Amino acid sequence: MRHFGHIAPAVREGLFFQEPCEFGPDSPARVLAAALGATLYSPATRPRLADDVIKQAGRGVVSMVLCLEDSIDDSEVVDAEENLVRQFAELDARDADLPLLFIRVREPGQIGDLVHRLGATGRMLSGFVLPKFTEDRGVPFMEALADAERACGRRLFAMPVLESPELLHLETRVATLQGIARTVDKYRERVLALRLGVTDFCSAYGLRRAPDMTAYDVQIVGSVIADVVNVLGRSDGTGFTITGPVWEYFRLQERMFKPQLRSSPFLAGRAEELRTALIEHDLDGLLREIELDRANGLLGKTCIHPSHVAPVHALSVVSHEEFSDAEDILRPERGGGGVMRSAYTNKMNEVKPHRAWAERTLLRAEVFGVARQDVGFVELLAAGLAE
């Protein structure tokens, strides 16, 4: 699979200076972690789940989570597990191109049980999403994952979700973060990425952000994101990929504030219609939040609606200017440091302070591609939505 692989090759060639790489379930963890993109969640109760997975893969989704936790009622868990087993068998029989598939469980015991029940069809499973992850809850989850991996003989990844009240509350935050850090470091080879459960953060205080506000506008949530990145997202080799929080909205809501999308990037052709559609579906707020995610050290995003996928992927593509800067900074002859004017002659590139940014940018370029010099996110978004 590859990002934008659902777009015709001729169209893709016109968009990219460097096309996204191909990757698959057996690719290196560093590549998969960066390539998760818009991870689409779906309740495991859906009766046509196999059809949904194949359909979304055909629309550019490269990672999905089949959820047995908060998206379904407590009374539905047993039926949902049985449905998963049936749907994996259906996927196996269809032999179609699939995204990376993860199952979000509730308890550690479900991991080994599901791997056993899936049997040979479990080869399509990339791992598990682990809810409300703390040191006390996380260790049993990780041990269960290690046992299941040994039992099935395949690599299985974990994606812990950081969403517990202990992480949010000021008096327990530092100790909780330290415990999480110890746990994920101990099982580092199995941790693909860390996910943020912002809906649960808001729930602890009876809050819900409006569609014209981002997670970062809710100060108590923004402070937790900052602390998580501070402890777990460092670029010194100890950090992990941390994915952006879910965007909850996908339909027109009554607005209090003006739209957040400037009109100028959309003036060419019929792109103004695209801008109007984005605003009508509250996706202008999503676009702003994606940009803030990246500015704050996050990569990829949890998504609960297919309409969110194309914006996440379009804004994940590396611009030609970013790529040019990153390559300049990482040239071998720059190893001793120094400062130089960018090739675009609009900024300073300082080799040592900007090196970690450049390395991260080139990894993103590898999996999401580099846009041509005259191609912006509007063209990438329009192409992604047209397919």
List the helices and strands and how they pair.
Layout: H1 9-15, E1 16-18, H2 29-35, E2 38-43, H3 49-58, E3 63-67, H4 77-94, E4 100-104, H5 109-118, E5 125-130, H6 135-152, E6 157-162, H7 165-168, H8 170-186, E7 194-196, H9 198-203, H10 219-232, E8 242-247, H11 271-280, H12 283-295, E9 301-303, H13 309-314, H14 320-329, E10 339-341, E11 348-350, H15 351-368, E12 370-371, H16 377-386
Parallel strand pairs: 2-3, 2-9, 3-4, 4-5, 5-6, 6-7, 7-8, 8-9
Antiparallel strand pairs: 1-12, 10-11
Helix pairs in contact: 3-4, 5-6, 6-8, 8-10, 14-15
Brief characterization of the structure:
The protein is of the alpha/beta class and 387 residues long. It contains 16 helices and twelve strands.
- CATH class placement of the largest domain: Alpha Beta
The number of distinct structural domains comes to 2
Unreliable stretches covering 5 or more consecutive residues:
254-258
**Tally of contiguous helical segments:** 16
Q: How do the strands line up in the largest sheet?
A: 2-3-4-5-6-7-8-9
Helical content band: 40-55%
Overall pLDDT confidence:
91
Derived structural class? alpha/beta
What is the molecular shape? globular
Order of helices and strands: HEHEHEHEHEHEHHEHHEHHEHHEEHEH
Taking the sheet with the most strands, its summary is:
8 strands, parallel, barrel
CATH topology of the largest domain, which one? TIM Barrel
CATH superfamily of the largest domain: Phosphoenolpyruvate-binding domains
Rg over C-alpha atoms, rounded to the nearest angstrom: 21 Å
Distance between the termini: 16 Å
- CATH architectural category of the largest domain: Alpha-Beta Barrel
DSSP summary, beta strand count: 12
